[in-house]
Amino acid sequence: MADKITVTLEDKELEVVADNRDYVAWDITRAKRGWPQMADAPILAMTFLAWNALYRTGKTETKLDDFLAKCSEVMTPDEHGEVIPF
Q: β-strands 83-85, 71-77: how paired?
């Protein structure tokens, strides 16, 4: 499982691929923070997956809560390759 995600922050646009490690981190963080399931919070989930993949790969040093505050858009391609915003 790997998802290409495009994120727009206040000052730049970044692309990253989220993989199983990021989904596992979502499960752990979601439980610790009392967040809803992915199906009930898809925008939060995709934003987290993007942040975790960016942070894991060294493409950002921004901490999660700051990233959530700065992220203005999250997009991922659909099954036809069309980019769709969340």
A: antiparallel
Query: Does residue 83 fall inside a structural domain?
Result: no
Residue 16 near residue 54 (C-beta atoms within 8 A): yes
Predicted pLDDT of residue 3? 85
pTM of the prediction? 0.88
Instruction: Using DSSP, state whether 8 is helix, strand or coil.
Output: strand
CA atoms within 13 A on the CB side of 70: 17
Structural domain harbouring 7 = 3-78
Query: What integer pLDDT is reported at residue 79 of this predicted model?
Result: 65
Pairing of strands 83-85, 3-9: unpaired
